[in-house]
Amino acid sequence: FEETAYLIIHGKLPNDAELAAFKEKLVTYRELPRTIRTIGSLPLEQYSPMAALSIGIDTMRTILTGGTSPKRPRTPVDTDADTVAEIGANGEELEYKAKGNTEDNLEIAYRLVAGLGTITAAIARIRQGRLPIEPDPELGFAANFLYMTTGQRPSKTAERLMDISLILHMDHGMNASTFAAMLVASTQSDLFHCVGAGIGALSGPLHGGANEAVVHMLEEIGGPENVEDWFRKARAEKRKIMGFGHRVYKTYDPRARVLKPLAELVTKDNPEITRLYETALKLEEVVIKELGQEKKIFPNVDYYSGLIYKGLGFEPCMFTPIFAVSRVVGWVARCLEYLENNRIFRPRAVYSGPVGNEYIPLEERE
Ligand code: ACO
């Protein structure tokens, strides 16, 4: 995760020293005790996890920038020992520069990349009535994310599965959430708000929300023996089959090719996931047979990722936040790049409604 994130943000692979320094930053910045304490005082279990994640980002922003405007000097915060890592060891001011890939912007980008994992893990635990766990500085990004969620150091297999999945979701061209983040960046708003916009766009079922929808769909089908009947009914009702189709790929999504065999790894000793996986295999066969040729509909990245997350112990409503934990890298990298030569996005719409309407006074309207 760390090496790929560096590549995406900086446009080159890190050397040894650069990677070590980047990892150290992420380890420092994943400590968010004040943010977690603040959002922990809310009834987060009643929020959708994506909404809770947005609140976490806004809270982090307020704590890091000291108020409503990121350009305003940070007001002093109370000095309990565990706030140190969150506000910067030297108490330095974080000033957001709206132009260019400045050092401060890069620091904020790093903080967001590190912070989303901590906030997401805390949300997952709070939803289950458990206390958030502090990050373990000995662990890499993927392992620490699993540790902060489950409270247990993960196996090597679980760590690698998480790592690969995070890498595959990190960036993907001009997808909807990346565009949403860049649109906000173009107004010279700050990176926290850009990431907030990305989270909003990612949460929809046609984008990042599909991974959760896939698992619910497989549960609804109930088993491979029900696939044919279920599919016929779904087609008759003109339902979209979740986890299939893509605006760009008119072939098998290469990320799904990687995730499919990995999903099989989590089925071991888990009859529930095994049944879902077998259902997924059968559905894939049926959908490709009918829609592959005809409409170029094939599995996308979301088809198998949810099974992996479920196998790693996450509840389905956490799948899309996990997507955000990774995609935040692409969001901040592209926002920083765009700001190098910024121009506000201002599309025009073609009006197609009636023209020449007269104003009718309120009391005369039907
Ligand atoms: N199931 C059934 N039919 C589908 C599906 C699907 N999953 N996807 C597309 N189609 C059909 C459409 O109904 C349409 O049929 P028509 O020509 O008879 O009207 C045709 O294929 C073209 O579909 P569009 O909706 O125009 O494709 P578009 O490129 O606009 O949408 C999208 C892409 C949103 C991903 C779509 O395939 C979809 O809704 N998929 C299900 C949700 C999903 O898995 N989203 C995750 C995408 S990956 C990501 O965001 C990380």
Features:
globular; 366 residues; 16 helices; mainly alpha; binds acetyl coenzyme *A
Topology summary:
Layout: H1 2-10, H2 16-29, H3 33-40, H4 49-65, H5 84-87, H6 103-127, H7 141-150, H8 156-168, H9 176-185, H10 191-202, H11 210-221, H12 227-236, H13 254-265, H14 271-295, H15 302-311, H16 319-339
Helix pairs in contact: 1-16, 2-6, 3-4, 4-6, 4-10, 6-7, 6-16, 7-8, 9-10, 9-16, 10-16, 11-14, 11-15, 13-15, 14-15
Short note summarizing the structure:
The chain is an all-alpha fold and 366 residues long.
Which strand-content bin applies to the residues?
under 5%
Number of strands: 0
Number of helices: 16
Along the chain, the helix and strand elements come as HHHHHHHHHHHHHHHH
Characterize the main sheet.
none
Mean pLDDT: 91
Computed Rg: 22 Å
Distance between the termini: 60 Å
Q: What ligand molecules are bound, each kind once?
A: acetyl coenzyme *A
Shape: globular
Helix content: 55-70%
Structural class: mainly alpha
Low-confidence stretches: 70-85, 87-91
Can you describe this structure?
- It is a single chain.
- Mean pLDDT is 91; it is low at 70-85 and 87-91.
- The longest helix is centred in the first third of the chain and has 25 residues, at 103-127.
- Helices cover 58% and strands 0% of the residues.
- The chain is mainly α.
- The protein is globular, with a radius of gyration of 22 Å.
- The structure holds acetyl coenzyme *A.
- Acetyl coenzyme *A is lined by residues 206-208, 210, 240-247, 295, 297, 300-302.
